[in-house]
Records
---
Amino acid sequence: MFYRKIVFTLVLAAALFASLAARSEGADEAKTNEQGAAKAAPTRSARQTVTSTSFSPAVSEFLQRPLASQLVTINPSGSPQVTVMWFKYENGALLFTTTTDRNKFRNMQKDPRAVFTVLDPTNMYKWVTVHGKLSVVDGRDPQAFYSGLAEHYLNAESLAEWRKTALMDRRTVLRLTPTQITTMGFPQK
C-alpha cells in the first residue's frame, strides 16, 4: 500500500510537471508568435493623413480592389444612414447602384451630400474617406452595371447564387463626386 501511494504521488508529480512544462512551452511559443505578429503587423509611427480633392495614383489603384465600403447619406431627421456597399472607382468618382425605393436613394433626392469610407482589411491604418455629392448617372444600364459589380466582387459559385436573388427592378446608378478626400497609409505623391 505504501508503495502504491509513492508511485501515485510520483505519477501525479510527473503529470503536474509535464503540464507545467507544456504551459511554459505554450507560453514561449505564444510569446514568439506574438513577437512575430508584432513584427508583421503594420505599425503606426504617427497619424499621417492627407486631404485633397483628387485621388493619388496609389489611392486610385487601391480603389480598383473589390473592397467593402460604407456609404453614408443623411436621413430627413439629420441622422446618418449607413449602408455597406459594393462600388466602382471610375474617372475620379465612385459609382454605386441601388433601387429607387431604398432610403439612401430617397435621402440623396432631398440632400445629395454623402460620405464614403473604405478600409484595407489587412491594415487598419490604410483607409480612404470621401465627402461629396451624389447624383444619378444617366445613360448607363443599371442592370448591366450591377452585374459587372457582382462579377468584380464574387467568385463563380457566389455569382451563381447572387443571380438567383439579385433585385434588378427599379435599379439606378449613383455617382459620388468628391469634394474632399482624406487618406491614411498611402505613399505621399
---
Amino acid sequence: MKRFYSIVALLVLLVLAGCGSATTQPIAATQAPDVGATAMAGNTPVTQQQVPTNAPQPSGGPYKVGDTVGTADGFDITVNKLSTSQGNDYETPPQGDQYLLIDVSTKNMTGQIVHTNALDFTLSDSTGQQMNWTVVSGLPDMHSYDVATLQPGATERGDLVYEVPLGKHSYQLAFALNSFSDIQTLWDISA
C-alpha cells in the first residue's frame, strides 16, 4: 500500500512540474528575437510574434475609459469612469498615496454561471509594477466591486480600489478571469 501512495505522489509531482514549465517557439538564428516573422496569406501580410507560450497575451487594445470590450473569457467589460480619493476619517491611504477608484461593469456573456471578483483585475504602472488593490467601504459615492456569481447575461458593477502615488500617472488595467488565463484584456488608465 505504501508503494501505491509513493507512485501516486510521484505522478502528482510530475504533473505539477509539467504545468509549471515554460516553452517558447523557436526563432531562426538570422531573426532578431523582438522582430516578428512575416508571411503572406493571400495578399495580406501575416505577422507572428515569438513569445513564450505561457505568457499572457493581450486580446486587443489597450482600450480606453468608456470602451465596452468583449473579452476572450466571454465577458463584456466597460471601464465606466475614474476618480481619486484621499479617503475619509476612518480609511486613508498611506502618506504620499491616494485611492484610485475604477468603476467597471462586467457582463457575463459565457452562457454559463461564472464567479468574478476584483482579483480578476490587475493594475500596473508604466514600469510593470502592480499597484496594491485595497478594500475600503466608506468612501463617498463608492460601491465596491464584490465577489459575484453571475448568471448568463447578468452584470456586476462596482469600483476597483487601488493605492497609487499622488499626482497624475499612467497605468494599465488588465482583466483575465483567472491567473492561469493565457489572454488578458488591457485598458490604458490615466489618473
